[in-house]
Fold this protein.
Amino acid sequence: MDNHLQLHLALSNTSTHNMLKKRKFDESFSDDEMTSNKRTLPLLIWNDNRNLDSGCVDVEGDAVVGWPPVNSRMRKVAEHHRRESTASNYVTVDNGGGGGGLNWMYVKVEMEGIGIARKVDLGIFGSYQALTATLMAMFGKRREMYKLTYRDKEGDWLLAGDVPWERFVRSVRRLKLLKKVW
Amino acid sequence: MAYSFPEEVLEHVFSFLSLARDRNAVSLVCKSWYEIERWCRHRIFVGNCYAVSPEIVIRRFPELRAVEMKGKPHFADFNLVPEGWGAYAYPWIAAMAEAYPFLEEIKLKRMVVTDESLELISKSYKNFKVLVLTSCEGFTTDGLASIAANCRHLRELDLRESEVEDLSGHWLSHFPDSCTSLVSLNMSCLGSEVSFSSLERLVARSPNLRTLRLNRAVPLEKLANLVRHAPQLVELGTGAYSSEIRSDTFSSLADAFSACKQLKALSGFWDVVPSYLPAVYSVCSGITSLNLSYAAIPSSDLVKLISQCQNLQRLWVLDYIEDSGLEALAASCKDLQELRVFPSDPFGAEPNVSLTEQGLVSVSEGCPKLESVLYFCRQMSNAALIAIARNRPNFIRFRLCIIEPQAADYLTLEPLDAGFGAIVENCKELRRLSMSGLLTDRVFKYIGTHAKKLEMLSIAFAGESDLGLHHVLSGCDSLRKLEIRDCPFGDKAVLANAAKLDTMRSLWMSSCSVSFGACKLLAQKMPRLNVEVIDERGPPDSRPESCVVERVYVYRTVASRQRLDMPDFVWTLDEDSSMRYS
């Protein structure tokens, strides 16, 4: 019988201790009155051997790579929710076309002088900067020639940029890019 | 008298065998049966594209009409397999283009498919009918245009969950006017808007169309027009389900749906405006499958919809349904067989909805036919799991993801060993299990003891020692696929159970404690296994042999050579323990 392949079944915890490189919190309980059954939750899973510069590090900050196990499609759904939600759980969806809900926020975008309007999903932008850059690329125009205006849920046309982004996104119903006059 | 039947008679008899398992058994009876069978096998399924080579397949089965194949391991869905690992379809497509001019069906899952592959498919097979690409990537809408333009008899084009580089929606317009054979079209993963008039004309001239899954860019206002052209639809995936509330849009939609007497499955519902949901009420009583996993619908509206679907067998939904919605589901849908509840906010620190273990308990109590579950939640208890197991001994698939890694029983703070133990003990037909939460080696003992029909097991952040892995590998008689991440399992268990790995499709271990030395030893002992070390820190032999590898992927293979398409972070180990680079 090949010795390499024999498993010596360890029946006590201590002999397998050297396998538990990750479970540092275990050591802190070993000399306690606390029974080994009661554990508190670790705040972060850490594996010394893992190379954190590997290509598969998730963008979710301190979150563990690939956890929870949701595929890329579901991650995008969650991303929308993260941008959208604040203190309240979800906002009831307004009647306005495509805006103000807790999910995707398509609004119509027109550019002065161009007959065909486009639609953008505001949920994928995080700032006025990102939105304007994309709109300019969409219409193939130069940024300094246009200003971004929007119609809010009251029906008023306003210049974009005055209110914080989150608030803007909640109230915008339509976008229009107007030529700067000066 | 050893006269055999004429070959034609045997061939005719074999034609009644559709299961690969039966055909494989037949081919082992004797040499002449092997020969006859291989010439009349028309359909194969290759569970791991690297388990065999195109040459071997083509040599054995010269008359294939349908090929189904899987590439990357399942954990690739969660970014655990680095980009560029492999699973390229092109070598297969190219080899089959020469060998099988009459090939009709290609179904691929988790493979890299290029536009060249698609173009080759479209031009090589005169009678090509079915293309299904599940969770594939590497192609653009240009590739789709080739398929649309050249496959004259195309019946199915299904791109489920694939990552397609979306250059434009123009590809759809490449279907010639003469193409009227379409039975199934699933373009739900695409972003761009297709020409609506092309789409409408395509639907209108496809009398056999049974499945139509639109993408988000198809607006609600246009949906009624499409549906009106295809009242024979059995499965419909809507586009965006939102619009300004207009009574004419609503009534038009409701009318169109009411004409669909065969509709059994609904999906899509992006951007859903709940006020439009009642438009589908007329078909609800016939609906057996509902996929609302992209639809942010408040629980109350979900309940209104679901309580109309008394014949529902399959429900995929976001956790907005909450415990209350699941209770209503349990009360209304007594035929429910499969439930998947996805997290709307998986990365949020705090729960955003009121969905707990109670929802799953309710459904397990109320739905006697429930056999398949995927459930994401933030708390679980042994008591709940035990109750679920006792309620539903008929589970065949049970996947539970408690979002916080290593979460203990929230009532007792104990590990969830007893709960999962009850699942495997009671559910004797369990074929697939995914576990989460705080788990010691004990749960693996239960699994090794009871889970005799288990074929696929997924483990994360669990266990205490090699003993855990040893229990699984030595006890689970039917195990085919084992995937493990972040568990303290290492050399001893793997090496002691090396022979077991030959009976399985694959073993994946990432962020565990398997050393490079053990990988070499395993490769040495088991020549029919490919032992792939996937490590982005550079060559494993530049570090001590006792050093743990980042990931190891072990799979059985009859391909005579190691694969030649490995990227620079993958090493396979040869029989003589020399390292092979690609």
